[in-house]
Design goal:
108 residues, alpha+beta, GMP Synthetase, Chain A, domain 3, three-stranded mixed β-sheet, 3 helices, 3 strands, 17% strand, SUF system Fe-S cluster assembly protein
């Protein structure tokens, strides 16, 4: 049995790229640029855990958005499994948005 070393940085970049294809339906900015993704963990078994938040706890896409992130990350060939954990600690605020997102929304 060969032990294949994975490049977690490269895989991390792929995961971010895929996450950037998921958009909040109410805001024309992807969830990554919105600052909804707090952390992405990848272990050597190629299992991914994503710590994510929503703009509000009663967000209309509270069920579908994390599922979409999870499904898209699972679709990456190098990923064995993925799990999205929702947290509201710290609560999301506009400060977490990237400059790009703020520009897109006319906040700069």
């Amino acid at each position: 049995m060969s032990t294949e070393t994975i490049n977690t940085t490269e895989l991390g970049d792929k995961i971010v790229k895929v996450i950037k294809t998921v958009y909040d339906p109410e805001i024309p900015v992807d969830v990554y640029e919105l600052g909804l993704i707090y952390d992405v963990f990848v272990n050597e078994d190629r299992e991914v855990k994503i710590l994510m938040t929503l703009t509000t706890p009663n967000c209309p896409v509270a069920e579908s958005l994390p599922q979409e992130v999870e499904d898209k990350v699972k679709s990456i060939k190098m990923v064995k499994d993925a799990e999205v954990e929702i947290t509201f600690d710290p609560p999301w605020s506009q400060d977490l948005m990237s400059e790009e997102a703020k520009l897109e929304l006319g906040m700069l």
